[in-house]
Amino acid sequence: MAKNNDHIRKCNGQWSVPDGTAVPGQLTIEYEKGAILLEIYSTIDIEGNNAELLFNSINAVRNYYVDVIWGFAGELGDVTLFQCSWHSSEGVGAGLIINRYRAEFLIRDIHLRKDFRVKAAKFNYPYLGGFFFGFNNLNLLHEIKDLTILGDYYNKEMVVTDNLKLNYGSDIKEFFEDLGSKKRVQVIDEVIFKYNESVQIKDLMIDALNFRHLLEFSYGSRLPIQVKEIEFADLSDEQKLRKRLHSEGENQCYHITNFNLNYAEIVQMGSLNQNEMLFSRWTLSLEELTAVIQRWFKLSNLKNVVDYYLESVNERTGMKSPQTHVKINNLFLNLIQGLEDFYREMLEPQAIKKDRELFDMKKATILKDIQDASLKQWLNNTFKFTRYLSLEDKLQGLVDHCRPALETVFKPLDWTNFPTASKDLRHTLSHGMNKSQHLSADLYLNYYMAKLLLTNCLLQALKISPIFYRATLQTNYLHNELFGQIITRQKAAAKRINE
């Protein structure tokens, strides 16, 4: 395998779909750009179709997606490229065509079919030390500094769902710095996902991203992660034997490369102060943190709400864009949409919810039978469920839902105008009538109040016990900053009115 530089690796090999005809090609791994690219040079494409015909004919039907590509790639040995897509083609003469394919995953030392299943997987997540160990992480770091422990340092397993357990901890390694005599210790924070019953890789990724969303909610920023190793289920005896020949002991984990999860960035290790997290072992007991994680995995219906929230609290982004009126407008609209979705998923009265679902089902049946496109569109836009609560009513319901818990920690805020003002602002901004609202005092005030409200809606959904809830709000810098901004702006608004 040839190395062009530290950021690009290339290797030549033979490539095919499972049990297909092998063709020559080159695999390129671009670490800086975060891309896995395969180029094959042949008269046929990777699936055995006439490559020249596909290249020259505009009417030819190409299969743009290939689940699995097998390869033998020099020093990499057996390789499985998973979730591949055709990228481009280029003619080089004499009937030869270069076909390029991008891959989401590169799995080394094994050939897998598309229906392979997973038993366990190891991921790197940032700043796990403080999240999982809290104050005990300081003791761990002290022991590492004194070189009293090396190797894997894991706590006990955490049961998350009926089928999933998390084993979290650190891989601690000692190495020499710059080929000199000075030793350094590297701490790599890891989580191992273990399944009682094997799952497909898509289910593994759903769980991994769900856990990332939990950490992002606590940290208040988007996070890169890395999938490092996977243990597969139902391998043949031959595959297990080959793995033993290439690894130490009975290790059956395979190295995997993927860039989309971590945006080609470095996953930062170490710990965060308790004030930088909404919740962690700094403020929760192990039992309470376990319960929070378990509840989070049950709240799959709130994924969109979490995405709206994260867009508004990305506090640790290295390249912060300027606070233009367009950005603030969009962040405010995202927050209001998140609040509205939260109400529908968590607080909407059951009677109304059942009526709405029945209405939607009957409406879909009627629309399906209408052939005229313009009539279908008119009916869809006109025929509305009449028992929907107004946005103002929903926002008032959310204020009533969160206010008692908030007032156990902070001085009472004036929420009187928030539902009506936010409803009016949402209507104005979403219809393009925002010329007078650019960065206005009212917009900023309601933006901060909406952010505080949505944060606490999500915390309430996790059912953190009152004593830990107060500790979470009292120590978190985001909550204290929001509260300070709201108090300051409400006093300024009152002063303007009096003047």
Observed structural traits:
HEPN_Apea, ApeA_NTD, 499 residues, globular, alpha+beta, 6-stranded antiparallel barrel, single chain
Describe the structure.
This protein is an alpha+beta fold and 499 residues long. The chain has three domains: 2-108, no CATH class; 117-253 and 260-298, no CATH class; 304-348 and 389-498, no CATH class. It is built from 15 helices and 14 strands. Strands 2-3-4-7-6-5 form a six-stranded antiparallel beta barrel. Helix 8 (325-347) packs across helix 11 and helix 11 crosses helix 13. The longest helix has 23 residues, at 325-347. The chain is globular, with a radius of gyration of 27 Å.
> What is the 3D shape?
globular
**Average pLDDT rating:** 81
The succession of helices and strands, N to C, reads: EEEEHEEEEHHEEEEHEHEHHHHHHHHHH
Our count of domains comes out at: 3
Number of β-strand runs? 14
The rounded distance between the terminal residues' Cα atoms is: 75 Å
Q: What structural category do the secondary elements indicate? A: alpha+beta
Ranges where pLDDT stays below 50 over 5 or more residues in a row are: 146-150
- Lateral arrangement of strands in the main beta sheet: 2-3-4-7-6-5
Helix segment count?
Answer: 15
Round the Cα radius of gyration to an integer and report it.
Answer: 27 Å
Strand share of the residues? 15-25%
* Biggest pleated-sheet summary: 6 strands, antiparallel, barrel
